[in-house]
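Lab notebook page, bench 4
Experiment: in silico fold of construct C2
Operator: M.H.
Input chain length: 515 residues
Purpose: comparison with the prior construct
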Amino acid sequence: MKEKQFVIGVDAGTSNIKAVLFDLKGNELASHGIPVTLDSPLPNTAEQDMQEIWDCVTTCVAKIAGDIEVDQCVGIGVTSHGDGTWMIDADGNPVRSGIFWCDGRATDAVERWHQEGIAREAFALCGTAVNTGTQSCQLEWLKNHEPESLERASSIFHCKDWIFYKLTGQRTTDETDESLPMLNMATRQYDDRLFELFNLNNLRDKFPQVLPAYRNIGQLNADVAERIGLQPGMTVGSGPMDVSACALGVGAIWHGDGSTILGTAGIHQVTMDSADLTPEMVGMTLCHAPSDKWLRLMAVNSATPNVDWFLRELGEGIRRQAEADGISVFDAVDQAIQSVPIGSRGVMYHPYLLPNGERAPFIKPAAKASFSGLSDTNVAADLLRAVYEGVVFAMVDCYRHMPIEVKTITLSGGGAKSDVWCQMVADAMGTPIQITAGTEFGAKGAAMNVAVATGVFESYEQAVDEMVHAKKTYNPDPARHATYQKLYPLYKKIAECSAGYWDLRAEILDALESE
């Protein structure tokens, strides 16, 4: 192995585009990020301009490429959020804005497919319970509302596939991204029956070739290389998608390894040696980056945005306190949380904040976030702790639906930056929570994948040994765990009893809007 070799990881997230420079020991040497916003042209929709995403990627990569000599870079690995629909025409131009995983426009298709049994039959093949972020549902909406967009489309992509195409001119995808929900988990390839169930036969030839992540590689175009300051012909790897990339980036590649991302979404997953699709109609199943591993995934729609919302709308007192004490807002948040006992003095919060409701461990597009148990003795700190606990109870709920025993859980994402939240997770789960050195694990996973693809590492196992390093462990407190165990049934019961109210709410609001 040559000295001074580096690899670049690109992670196109929901709210941020980042490029990160790694050495082959996994150290983050440089990074550059650009925040991006979602557009909402219609109620309950979430879109993004595809050209804007591409411009952000090139800006970020060019920024960090200046820190190295071009011949020192092994390659570029690309990952992004999964699900959603990103389409280009025959000339490679965007057909329309990209539709995100958190888009809620396809509610009617989701509810109909579940009622008619289509979702259940599809689950038996793909292991994913269709939801509004699923590409098949969004394509159904486009067929009914924008047939001209589908007519113009030549390739139906996910977000990272679009970036990869712009870097290389290649129209392919990988097993991790296309798992949701168009692949048969037994074969890791497209299944004709799924296209029939979702009534997508007429679009079949628009879906790109699907490859294992380590084989989904191309060469950097000369004009793009000049724009970003790297070598033409350099290897570019596309994949795995962000949840698999993060699992790889924290070293969760062995059977029973759990990994959670507390970011925009709450991603809770376990690595498996075989495609175990139990329990039925719960969560998602996808191919992992290693071709002999799968991930059972429970993807809660909203995690850290619940905290962002609270601080934006109800956090003025905390901001003032932080300023008075001369500390950061999040240090003040930690202090406020610690001043409140477990259970938030009777307040409970359910974190169904985004337009598309909830998708794990249950599918309910109409689900909405709520506080319950409020009284005039409660203060803002009680509500704040309830928000944190609500996200954690959602995590507990997801892991209780996993088909195999979870041996360890590695935590990453924005939530992993809070010692208080990490300890809360450990106490609620009753499981040690591990933190891995670094912060950009999606980008790292993509970087590790291209390092394997180019032969720098012989295997994913070697890549993990060389590039992933443990940092800290939070051990659960038995007494606190017992308290969370007593509170969890209340969290579950409130959610179950709210289902009818969510439906009635949606029915009434729809009627009011149509008047």
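Observations: The chain is about 40% helix and 20% strand. The longest helix spans residues 478-514.
Next step: discuss at group meeting.
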